[in-house]
Records
---
Amino acid sequence: MTSAGGKQIQYIDNIDVSGGTCHSATLIRMQSRLCSTSGFTLVELMVVIALIGVLFSIAAPQLATYLEHGRKATCLSNRYNIEQDERTYYLNNNSPSLAIDSRYQCASGGTYVWLVSDPTAPDYPRIGCSLHYGRLTVPLTSLGSTFAEITIAMIDLINKFYKQNNRYPRSWGNYVFTDIGLDPVEWARPVNGLYYSPGGTRVTIQPAEGYIMTMKSTEGATLTLTPKLKWDLLYDVSDKQWYYHRKDPGNVIDISTMQIIKN
């Protein structure tokens, strides 16, 4: 027995086990087997990682396919609901609405547009999706089908008029349309539940009957527009800001929060 660092260490050369003799060399071999672990070596770990990578590469395309099938099913459900909403509106009002509620969004990023919008057509109404159903070759208006398409195009026309004439378009009567090359008759009806009107330095939007608009100010307040209020959501090209009702620093809108809701 020796002492190391204050600890007692005992070396055993011979131990009687079941009446036999066990030498130190035998104990060393037994100890090495007992101390060995069942953990992975680096090579084994690399093999496992490689196998996981191979399995993932096989499964990933199938997973993507399953997810897209789910998105297609959601899109189909959305189109059905939009068409049902249109049928109900026509039956109640004897006129088409052609509105697409903002809560219906294609999960794959497709754009919804009417393929059949004439109530006299036998297959009215029919909605299409740019990714999943129908060829969207005919937009709802001469400036496009969506809020973003229409407002961006109107703003662009106002800016072009200013550059060509060194003044803004007129802001009264049909001149608000004709000065920038638009047909007043086309814009006399709502598009997806909204009326659009350019004029002077502004583009104004109002909800049609049966629709409301909600949005948040840049200060976080929730604001609402209804047909009864006869107030506007307006964009001013001179300062490139969206406003609620009137041009005022306290009425600046975060346009990304705008929603169109059908009553």
---
Amino acid sequence: MIQRPLYQKQIDQLISKRFIKILIWQRRVGKSTLLKSIIQKFSDYQIIFLDKEQKIYDSIFDSDSLYQFIKSKINRDLKLLAIDEIQNISWRETAILSIYNELPELEIRITGSNSTMLSSELSTRLRWRSISIMVYPFVFSEFCDYYHLKAWYDSMLAYIEKWSMPSVYPLLDIENSDQRRKDLINTIVIKDIVQRYSIRDVDFVYDIYMFLLGNIGNINSIKSLTDYLKSIGKHLSINALQSYIYYLCGAFLVYECWMYDIQGKKIFERLRKYYVGDASMKKIYFGGYDGFVGKNIENIVYMLLVSYGRKVFVGKIWDLEVDFVCERAWRYIYIQVTFLLSDEKVSQREFASLQKITDNRPKYVVTMDQINVWVKDGIEHVSLWELEEKMR
């Protein structure tokens, strides 16, 4: 069982801090270890643990029933209140805020699998008394821990091939595993999007997801999406299309990465790239291997950056593109990603945009080459399996 120290550290730092702690994750991202670690730290005290995916708690469905349940369990030894999948309780904020005010010494941990509800609606209604931790799929080091591998070229190839939600790994070696993995995606679509937003035309959700999955790492606009829908004989208003993308991002199936003008220091609101929570699904849905590896590498780098708390943009400098501009605490890093530096022409292409950037911030070209060949013009060549160490 992987302990996930990347998140354990954040969780430990928040113990006894006067906030409602919210852990947000995609369904099937592997939450059980984190939940058990939280509960274990309070094993000498009374705790209340409510898992809304268990049928025994079906009677707790709104603020009043949640409040009455918690009040019935309170005694002087109570130290921890943990509620899992709280998005399944309507108007939960009123009950949580009441308990927060009535029991100031109580540790309150809330978990759920919809970022739209948890990170925006819930924190706003809790009047900024909450703090959120985003939990993502395994980064490469966690993948190596899971499979007992050494970080090197071969293990990175395995990660590129298998990279997915943690709970999927036990399915990879069983018969008909691809269909089972599709079933997990269907669960997310139905529970976190269709049912939550009362969507009638489910096919539209899948059409948009499939388009974004097939265009990982490509610059897109709302127009390119509407043109695609028209090409398959479907029509959706711009407002509805934007809402559907918002829902997909809220369920962690898709991640939106806006374009940033490095020279002008402004964001292009109409242009962006999209990445996905499980890039290996592209091969399952579309088949073949051509183009899969390169785009999956870019997707892996994006997810690594956000996992380590970076704000990530697509960079633009003059007429050239920088794959990633990432920032944390006003510290910037520029990253260009390609599969291999196969010849001088590829090297010049990957260098060109970074060479246009005149500041002295770190600049990396990240590839699957087994040898780091140079540091040139302040730009460092880094193997993909070594990048995580530089993000720590």
